[in-house]
Design a protein that fits this description.
mainly alpha
Length: 364
């Protein structure tokens, strides 16, 4: 008989062969997706109203990263398109996609619901309410160009705090209580956003709010906001990877987690704070983008299995690649106009959700 360990049982030889195969698959997909992300960044910068060759993009990026003081030999307009406009947008898209994907992985483990995503806890609804207040009524006008992201971020944090307080007031924090509190807060804030839109006399402001609610990476610029998002996303991916065994235990059930020495309540509080910070930051920068946190975690588990030490990095890389290309489509489909990126992700996500429902129906 295999002996009991802290995280279960020692594997039998057959189990060990299976684990080795999964480890190889994990290394393969992490390496392959890392290369795909690097290629995606370059190719996505090439695509737009003004097409650019990959060699020109690499030259411009290399010139700025190397800090070469000499004047570039290529046109200044080309340099501005690559460095000031498209590269920040592509990097923001990669960060947002990775963040929404890994937060979806964490939420699905936290509430033990495979249909969970960052919309579940009302965080996106809170950010939307804050953004609507900033656009329609000038909330945080003293912050200048940072008023919109700051208001959205504060709204997201307020929503997560409300979810935590409601779930905690009912007693011990459990998956069901978090789920119900998140749905209740989300609907209340969604109604608040709708009220703000109808209460405003600005037709242009209402149109801006509706566009932002569907998501856009058009606000991407070099500076503190982009740097903060990149740092928060990298920290979240690292933290969730370090907590992978705890996530494995929580996904199985509270009793199993207790048996393995993991406090479900304490872990859920940590996850809620981390996910709220991460989702609040990316939603403040990009608006509400749906389905990424639902679709990508399932794809990651299909590729490398359910173990979170593999699923988290694979989900991050897959989400980054997916959202960058979704943004490319949003930019070029209706040139010179730009589609909200949420429309593209919904076109992909809705059929996936139907497949998921059919799968659950056949296995039930």
């Amino acid at each position: 008989m295999p002996s009991v360990t802290k995280y279960g049982t020692n594997p039998t030889p057959i189990d060990e062969l299976g684990q080795r195969a999964l480890r190889r698959r994990g290394r393969f997909w992490i390496g392959g997706l890392s290369l795909a992300l690097a290629a995606t960044v370059v190719l996505a910068v090439c695509v737009g109203a003004v097409g650019l060759p990959p060699s020109a993009v690499v030259r411009v990026i290399g010139h700025h990263l190397a800090g070469t003081p000499a004047e570039p030999s290529w046109p200044l307009s080309q340099d501005a398109i690559v460095w000031r406009v498209r590269l920040p947008r592509v990097l923001l898209g990669a960060a947002v996609g990775a963040a929404l994907a890994v937060c979806g992985v964490a939420l699905q483990a936290m509430v033990r619901n495979l249909l969970a995503d960052p919309y579940l806890l009302g965080i996106t609804s809170g950010a939307s309410t804050g953004a609507a207040a900033a656009i329609l009524f000038g909330f945080g006008a003293g912050l200048g160009e940072h008023a919109l992201p700051a208001s959205a971020f504060l709204g997201a944090l307020a929503a997560s705090a409300a979810v935590f307080v409601i779930a905690r007031a009912a007693g011990r924090i459990t998956s069901l209580r978090l789920l119900m509190a998140g749905v209740a807060v989300g609907y209340a804030l969604y109604a608040t956003t709708g009220f703000l839109i109808f209460a405003s006399d600005s037709a242009e402001g209402s149109r801006s709010v509706l566009f932002w609610l569907l998501g856009s990476l058009g606000l991407a610029r070099w500076g503190v906001p982009l740097t903060s998002v990149l740092v928060i996303v990298c920290g979240t991916v690292a933290a969730l990877t370090l907590w992978s065994r705890h996530l494995d235990a929580l996904a199985i059930g509270d009793e199993t987690a207790h048996t393995l020495g993991v406090s479900p309540t304490r872990l859920r509080v940590r996850l809620l704070c981390l996910v709220s910070l991460c989702v609040g930051a990316v939603v403040a920068a990009s608006g509400g983008i749906g389905f990424v946190g639902l679709v990508i975690p399932h794809l990651a588990r299909r590729l490398v299995g359910a173990a979170h030490h593999r699923a988290v990095p694979v989900a991050a890389l897959t989400g980054a690649v997916f959202l960058v290309w979704a943004d490319v489509l949003a930019r070029v489909l209706l040139l010179p106009r730009e589609l909200p990126i949420g429309i593209i992700t919904a076109i992909v996500g809705a059929p996936f959700l139907l497949v998921l429902v059919k799968r659950f129906h056949t296995t039930a």
